[in-house]
Amino acid sequence: MQLSVWTYEGPPHVGAMRVATGMKGIHYLLHSPQGDTYADLLFTMIERRDQRPPVTYTTFQARDLGKDTSQLFQDAANDLIERYAPDALLVGASCTAELIQDDPAGLVEKMGLPLPVVPLELPSYQRKEHWGAAETFYQIVRTLCDKTRTASDPAGRRPLANLLGPTALGFRNRDDIVEVTGLLDKLGVDVNVVAPLGASAADIARLGEADFNIVIYPETGDLAADYLKREFGQPAIRTVPIGVGATQDFVREVAELAGTDPEPLLAEGLSRLSWWSRSVDSNYLTGKRVFIFGDGTHAVAAARVASEEMGFKVVGLGCYNREYARDVRAAAKTYGVEPLITDDHLAVESAIEAAQPELVLGTQMERHIAKRFGIGCSVISSPVHVQDFPARYSPHMGFEGANVLFDEWVHPLVMGLEEHLLTMFRDDFEFNDSAVPSHLGPGHSVPQEQVAEPANDSEAVWSDDAQRELKKIPFFVRGKARKNTEAFAAERGVGTIELETLYEAKAHYAR
User: How far apart are CA 476 and CA 284, in angstroms?
Assistant: First the structure.
């Protein structure tokens, strides 16, 4: 086991919490020691939900281990049913409680509770959060879905589809649902159930009434969609509509299953991304080096948008959830890069440093890494922080989502260009560091600039003149220039890097 400051995924019971918290009338009884209630903070602080998750903890303590902890679990079950009166109950154990082997599922089965119970066996030391969410949703569907309720005669009604996969604490899930629902409505398709986010036990019971399923978040919805296909014969659409091209593919697939005409919707030109990406100065976009890392679905989708619709060059692609590593490897082969499949953020940091990208598309962790390297970054995938649950409407799916992607990905590059221009003109009579900004007028002064040491771990010593010249190099290639210069100096036994050394290294690597 590796200790880490950051982690991309929590244990599987956190995935179960994401499902339970997103649903209505579902309660989760978690056999856990005192201290495991930290997970509540994920929802109330990061997602800013207005109520705490529907989770009851047994919270046994060290002194309870010499007694009957199973009795604590049964008491907690009776208490929560009396207090909350849920429509269905999920039961499971946290990673710590798993070690004492109390078997929550067996304990509840013996109690004969007067409501549906969904036992969860989530191996905390073999699986992680996304798998836990998918397994929990699958078990809920398997237990609560009414197999007698099937699709009615399609004559005289609009086609029905289920939207599968969104959960609490999901990246832009709320807005993506609105966008996808709007697309379906324009195609003449109604939504039967959205699940698990916002769904009740009664909603799960009528999943079989839909004509087909749309898996908008495969990490959570794939297992349930496979089950519904086996039980009801419902086909599933798994194209994730992120970007203009993927959204067009999605619209055509839905129209084919629904028997409707997609062309009127496609002809509306609802996205400005395609036109804007062609109209913006090519220096902002074309050939920009981009490194992409996140969950498998969002990483693959982002790579397609970056390469085909933005004109970027993909120089790195990876994911942290190994269940979707095959998709990422296939995409990486398409873009001619080595896939990075890891849940170690330090490995991701090293890969970013080696690739020297001009833009990073990643998670909250990559945001911090890119900031330290002075590289622009946009978040495309969970795990995320509070700023990625905006109050405004900000989807990543559909045609409007493509517009959002353009804004969120191009703006870091535009700001990078702005910084580059300010650096280029730093010796201008008005823009140099010792000049007073013209809008302040006379009588103002600026503090003397402090020349900072370049951030490096080598033993090379830089002269003041060389450091000042290094700072004039655009920030997004400054790190590479520094490393090349230090390598050049080391090869020639130069102890102190002077201005001439920097110029010589530049000429050497330009050959």
Answer: 13
Looking at 267, 290, 314, which one is the last position of a domain?
Answer: 267
**60 DSSP 8-state letter:** B
Is the pLDDT reported for residue 326 higher than 60?
A: yes
Over residues 75-112, the pLDDT tens digits come to: 888 999 999 999 999 998 887 767 666 677 777 777 88
Residue 341 confidence class, pLDDT cut points 50, 70, 90: very high
In one letter, which amino acid is 296? G
Structural domain includes residue 432: no
Q: Supply the residues annotated as catalytic.
A: 281
Burial 15-24 (b: 16+ CB within 10 A, else e): bbbbbbbbbe
C-alpha to C-alpha distances, 256 to 54, 215, 267, 395, nearest whole angstrom? 40, 16, 17, 25
Helix (H), strand (E) at residue 294: strand 289-294
At 359-383, the pLDDT tens digits run 999 999 999 999 989 898 999 999 9
Whether residues 59 and 118 fall in one domain: yes
Does residue 73 register a pLDDT over 90?
no
46 and 81 in a common domain = yes
Q: Which of 277, 244, 289, 283 has the alpha carbon at shortest distance from 407?
A: 277
Predicted TM-score of the model (pTM): 0.81
Q: For residue 494, which of 505, 510, 509 has the smallest C-alpha distance?
A: 505
**Whether the bond into 196 is cis, omega within 30 of 0:** yes
User: Regarding predicted confidence, which is higher, 414 or 170?
Assistant: 170
Q: How many CB atoms lie within 10 A of CB 111?
A: 14
State the total domains in the chain.
4
Angle subtended at Cα 484 by Cα 478 and Cα 487, rounded to the nearest 5 degrees? 140
Q: Which of 420, 451, 470 lies at the terminal end of a domain, its last residue?
A: 420
- For the ranges 81-95, 276-290, 312-326, the lowest mean pLDDT is seen at 276-290
Helix axes 296-304, 325-335, angle to 10 degrees: 20
Q: Is residue 354 part of a domain?
A: yes
If residue 483 lies in a helix (H) or strand (E), which one and from where to where? Answer: helix 475-491
Q: Is 300 found in the same domain as 166?
A: no
| Residue among 5, 19, 451 at smallest CA distance from 220 | 19
Its sign, for the CA torsion 156, 221, 174, 183, is negative
Question: Could you tell me if 388 and 358 lie in one domain?
Answer: yes
The closest of 146, 131, 140 to 23, measured between CA atoms, is 140
